[in-house]
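$ run holo --ligand "glutathione" --emit tokens
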Amino acid sequence: MKLRYNPASPYVRKVTVTLIETGLEDRVERIPTNPHDPETDIATVNPLGKIPALITDDGEVLVDSPVICEYLDSLHDGAKLFPAPGAPRWRALRLLALGDGMTDAGVLRRAESRRPEAFRYDKWVDRQNTVIGRAMDALEGELERLDGPLTIGHIAVACSIGWLDFRFPDLDWRAGRPGLAEWFEAFSERPSMTATVPKEAA
Ligand SMILES: N[C@@H](CCC(=O)N[C@@H](CS)C(=O)NCC(=O)O)C(=O)O
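-- output --
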């Protein structure tokens, strides 16, 4: 399999953490890709022009990190990151959506701040910060759901927070959320997380 990859992307990180946690890391070749490079060929692989994209051994192209992660989860016999249908699955998918939603809001905030100053809309930035803050408050209020067997939800939340720390070190999200901060510090010590800390591509 081939993974269109960038070490700064929080969505890609979810996939690489999944690969490590499921023991599939050696089956995937990482192809460095900058989707913002005008010369990139990513659109010939993924019409949406985004990473991650996974080319399977059958030549199928899978896009969107939740889809890729669920596919990878189907390839191993260990404990599943996507629980079987039932309440645990919905809890995991809820966390996945919250984590990805925080990342999506952060991406929107970052896009706004990269516009020429005259085109920036501060209220839009504030709106995204509010979204991130509300989602984190929700997580702080349901810390017990962050315990228990590892799921794709935990991975999504941790990759999101790790990326928010990387891009917005001034966010100060730990203030007033001691439980979430403690959970994140502990989760970040997993080998799958220490091996995938976000960084700019070389
Ligand atoms: N929902 C997608 C989001 C992927 C995404 O937005 N990736 C960013 C990199 S972090 C990207 O490729 N952006 C390029 C663009 O939007 O043109 C997923 O979960 O995979």
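-- notes --
The domain at 2-73 is CATH 3.40.30.10 (Glutaredoxin).
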